[in-house]
C-alpha cells in the first residue's frame, strides 16, 4: 500500500503552482486540511475525489475567491497568491472555467471570442470597432482548436451543451492564460463530446498548465498522466490512473461512500 503523503517538493525545482500546508475551515469545519500540492509547468493534472473532498474549495483558494486560513499558495517562483484578489490573480494569467458555461448567448461564437481577447475594453468597443487582421487570425486559430471553425457566425445560444463548453474554453484561451482551471468539463456531455473535450485538453497541455477536476473515470483515463486524489481536504494519493485506482485507501474511500446519499 502506498503512503498518503505526497512526495516532498525538491527545492531546486520551479513549479508553476505550489500549495503547502494550506488550511481552510468554514465555521470550524475543515474543508482544506494541511494540503500540499505541487505542479510542473505545462502539466495537465487531474484532480478526483468524492463529493465534499475540497476540490472546488482548492480552486477557490488558487483563484483568490477564498482566502486560506494558513499556508503557502504560490504561482511560479515567488508570487504569493494569498495577498492578491480574484481580479489580480486573473490578470496574472490564471483562468477558471466553472461547471455551467457562461457565454453571451445573443452574440455569435466569433464575437464571444473577440470579447474575450485581452485589451478589449467593452462590448461596444469590441463589436463596433474594426476587427484587426491579427485579432481575426487569433480568433480563427482558437475556433479551429475548439472545433467550432464552422460555427463562427452562429449565435452562441443555439450551440449544443458540449459546444458551449468548448466555446467557454476558447474564451479562456483568448486571454492566453498560463494556468487553466477546469471544473468538470465532461459533465452533461455525450460520450463523443467527452472524447473530443479530452483531445482538446490534451492538445493544450504543454502550452498551458491545466488542472482538471473530473468524476468521469473514462475521461480521466483518456487525459490523465498524473492524478491527485483529494479526500477530506488533503491529498490521499498521487500517481497514474492505474496507481490511484489500485490504491487501497482510494478504493476504501470510494467504496465506503458508495451507499451514501449524493449531496451535490
Ligand atoms: P468538492 O468540490 O470536492 O465536492 P467542496 O470544496 O465544494 O468539495 O466542499 C468541501 C467542503 O467544504 C464541503 O463539506 C462543503 O460543504 C464545505 N464548504 C465549501 N465551501 C463552503 C462555504 N463557502 N461555506 C461553508 N462550507 C463550505
Ligand atoms: Mg465541487
Question: In words, what does this structure look like?
Answer:
With 264 residues, this protein is of the alpha/beta class. The protein has 2 domains: 15-100 and 179-261, Rossmann fold; 104-158, no CATH class. The chain contains 10 helices and 10 strands. The protein has helices spanning 55-62, 86-92, 109-116, 123-128, 133-145, 161-174, 191-204, 217-223, 241-245, 248-256; strands spanning 17-26, 29-39, 44-48, 70-75, 79-80, 94-97, 179-183, 209-213, 226-231, 234-239. The strands form 2 sheets. It has a 6-stranded mixed β-sheet, sandwiched between helices. A 4-stranded antiparallel β-sheet has the order 2-1-4-5, covered by helices on one side. Helix 3 crosses helix 5 (133-145), helix 5 (133-145) packs across helix 6 and helix 7 packs parallel to helix 8 (217-223). 39% of the residues are buried. Magnesium ion is lined by residues 55-56.
Amino acid at each position: 500500500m502506498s503512503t498518503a503523503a505526497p512526495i516532498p517538493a525538491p527545492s531546486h525545482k520551479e513549479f508553476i503552482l505550489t500549495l503547502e500546508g494550506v488550511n481552510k475551515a468554514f465555521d470550524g469545519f475543515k474543508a482544506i486540511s494541511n494540503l500540499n500540492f505541487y505542479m510542473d509547468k505545462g502539466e495537465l493534472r487531474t484532480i478526483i475525489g468524492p463529493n465534499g473532498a475540497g476540490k472546488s474549495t482548492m480552486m477557490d483558494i488558487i483563484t483568490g475567491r477564498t482566502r486560506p486560513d494558513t499556508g503557502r499558495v504560490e504561482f511560479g517562483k515567488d508570487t504569493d497568491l494569498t495577498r492578491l484578489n480574484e481580479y489580480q490573480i486573473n490578470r496574472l494569467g490564471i483562468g477558471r472555467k466553472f461547471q455551467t458555461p457562461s457565454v453571451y448567448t445573443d452574440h455569435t461564437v466569433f464575437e464571444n471570442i473577440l470579447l474575450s481577447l485581452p485589451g478589449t475594453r467593452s462590448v461596444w468597443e469590441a463589436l463596433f470597432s474594426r476587427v484587426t487582421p491579427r485579432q481575426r487570425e487569433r480568433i480563427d486559430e482558437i475556433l479551429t482548436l475548439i472545433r467550432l471553425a464552422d460555427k463562427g457566425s452562429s449565435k452562441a445560444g443555439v450551440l449544443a451543451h458540449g459546444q458551449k463548453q468548448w466555446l467557454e474554453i476558447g474564451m479562456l484561451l483568448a486571454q492566453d492564460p498560463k494556468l487553466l482551471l477546469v471544473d468538470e468539463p465532461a459533465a452533461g456531455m455525450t460520450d463523443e463530446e467527452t472524447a473530443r473535450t479530452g483531445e482538446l485538453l490534451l492538445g493544450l497541455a504543454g502550452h498551458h498548465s491545466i488542472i482538471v477536476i473530473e468524476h468521469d473515470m473514462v475521461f480521466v483515463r483518456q487525459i490523465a498522466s498524473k492524478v491527485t486524489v483529494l479526500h477530506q481536504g488533503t491529498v490521499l494519493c498521487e500517481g497514474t490512473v492505474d496507481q490511484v485506482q489500485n490504491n487501497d485507501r482510494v478504493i476504501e474511500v470510494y467504496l465506503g461512500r458508495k451507499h451514501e446519499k449524493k449531496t451535490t
